[in-house]
Amino acid sequence: MALLELKNVSKHFGAIHALNDVSLSLEPGRIVGLMGDNGAGKSTLVKIVAGNFRPTHGTMQMEGQDLSMHRPIEARRHGIEIVHQDLALCDNLSAAANVFLGREIRKGIGPFKILDYAAMYRRAGQIFAELRSETRPRDLVRQMSGGQRQAVAIARTRIADAKVVLMDEPTAAISVRQVAEVLNLMRRLRDRGIAIVFISHRMPDVFSIADRVVILRRGRKVADKDVAASSPEEVTGLITGAIEYA
């Protein structure tokens, strides 16, 4: 059964139809590559799933139950997390402080509670070990590589016990070595049964890790197929319009 399912979802901004009748299903432990040119509707679709936008038409279901969200915090309560392209990290804080930002562990009695740094360092270290990342809990984010920063952002989703993770261009603007590190982090999440939407313009990355590829063009879904049944040439044709549907 699908973990998250969108049925005929549309989003209109006045006369602008950003999305038209898009259906999408996400399954546990599977990675869906979401591709399309700028303005194809990828960001709008992701913002609907993340609770930023409500669809104009269509329905969403989570584990077979109807899903209606008004704010991102409601999506998080349902186990939907997003790793933004800019990562939204605080450079002056440690890795552990960023992982627990807004979800800090506290100790004490009644209203007299203080931050439990030892517990946060310990738990963050356990998560980095699970992800097989070299990131250390006490390291400052401003001193980290692009791959280590991604590890911190991904570790946040583990704290939240995410079921669905939306990853917005996680391999953009980082080195080849760091790309490999980030793809491995995504594999660790997939192996734990998490459904991942991987938004990317990088064809080699999508074909190396995704199970399925979904392509949007001008707000419509023009392909949804197994990566093994497609090719970079076909995907390029679908994105540009040289191929209408697949």
Automatic annotation (TrEMBL):
Species of origin: Bradyrhizobium valentinum
SUPFAM superfamilies: P-loop containing nucleoside triphosphate hydrolases
GO terms, molecular function: ATP binding; ATP hydrolysis activity
Stretches assigned to the ABC transporter domain: 4-243
Keyword Lipid metabolism applies: no
Protein name (Swiss-Prot/TrEMBL): ABC transporter ATP-binding protein
PROSITE patterns the UniProt entry points to: ABC_TRANSPORTER_2
Described function: Involved in beta-(1-->2)glucan export. Transmembrane domains (TMD) form a pore in the inner membrane and the ATP-binding domain (NBD) is responsible for energy generation.
InterPro entries: AAA+_ATPase, ABC_carbohydrate_import_ATPase, ABC_transporter-like_ATP-bd, P-loop_NTPase
Pfam families in alphabetical order: ABC_tran (PF00005)
Keyword entries, A-Z: ATP-binding, Nucleotide-binding
